[in-house]
Amino acid sequence: MTKRLNFTEHIYYKLSENKKKLMKDWQTPKKTNTRHLIIDNLLPDDLCYEIYKSFPKKIDNFYFRKSFRERKRTLANLSNYNKNINNAIYAFQDKKILDIVSDITKINNLEADENLYAGGLSLMTKGDFLNPHIDNSHNINRDKYRRLNLLYYVTPGWVEDNGGNFELWDNNVSKPKNITSLFNRMVIMETTRNSWHSVNKIISNQARCCVSNYYFSKNSPSKINGQYFHVTSFTGRPNEKYKRAYGLIDNTVRNSISKIFKFGRGRKLINYKKL
């Protein structure tokens, strides 16, 4: 393989080269209730660094989310930004990538989120965090279930002591598995009604940059209860009793409003792709 190959071909090569191991790892019981994979050195380092350098430099261009739930910056409208960013994001949406990820996870009929309703760029700086939560259950039109999160970290030299590391929790949200957001690392996690995850607070002056994609399918991940719907639902950490109590109320209210008014439908994002 040469470095002239595009993002899609590199990702496909990495996944296919390690396919048997990844299939085994996916099915192997973990300490957390959420199935997941950790794939290091996904791309040649220079390509990963190019993605990092292509992140928008003006922090004000990101949408800043700040509440008891989270503090982070996201960006999904990529029409004015470097083609490396667009090509990297949409490489994960290529059919050959969808197909091999489907083979590895045994989740059929996966579809990409071309409108980046949930995906795009994430930038977190000192003091930013994402409290334990389960993601919203559906796509923008509520006709497909969210099945997988693909998180690709691109900040050079990131270490665990920086904070800003990905966490997967047990059903009671009592103890997390910590996954360092290492440079050139991809995490694939299954999205279910109980896939609690978070990002611990960043204590470094360095920005944590992540490229996010989400896969959907018309099939529900729940084999027992079948159909269900919920908005992104947050809780507090084990020592945050106030946030846990407030989160129960907040989640109930937002779920009720969303079900009545179909909140979250019809939003259209402008992107350019496959440059």
Radius of gyration: 18 Å
Helix tally? Answer: 6
Q: Strand fraction band?
A: 15-25%
Spell out the helices and strands N to C.
HHEHEEHHEEEEEEEEEEH
Provide the structure class: alpha+beta
Total count of strands? 13
Shape: globular
Give the end-to-end Cα distance, rounded to a whole number of Å.
Answer: 22 Å
Which superfamily, in CATH terms, is the homologous superfamily? q2cbj1_9rhob like domain
Stretches where pLDDT is under 50 for at least 5 consecutive residues are: 264-275
CATH-defined architecture: Sandwich
CATH topology: Jelly Rolls
Instruction: Please describe the biggest sheet, giving its number of strands, its sense, and whether it closes into a barrel.
Output: 13 strands, antiparallel
Tags for this entry?
275 residues; alpha+beta; disordered C terminus
Commentary on this structure:
This protein is α+β, with helices and mostly antiparallel strands. The chain is 26% helix and 24% strand. The chain contains six helices and 13 strands. The protein has helices at 7-17, 19-27, 45-54, 83-91, 95-105, 241-261, and strands at residues 36-40, 63-66, 70-75, 111-112, 120-124, 129-134, 145-153, 166-169, 176-179, 185-190, 197-199, 208-217, 233-234. Helix 1 (7-17) packs parallel to helix 4 (83-91), helix 1 runs parallel beside helix 5 (95-105) and helix 2 crosses helix 5. The longest helix has 21 residues, at 241-261. It starts with 6 loop residues before the first helix and ends in a 14-residue tail after the last helix.
Summary?
The protein has 275 residues and is of the alpha+beta class. Helices cover 26% and strands 24% of the residues.
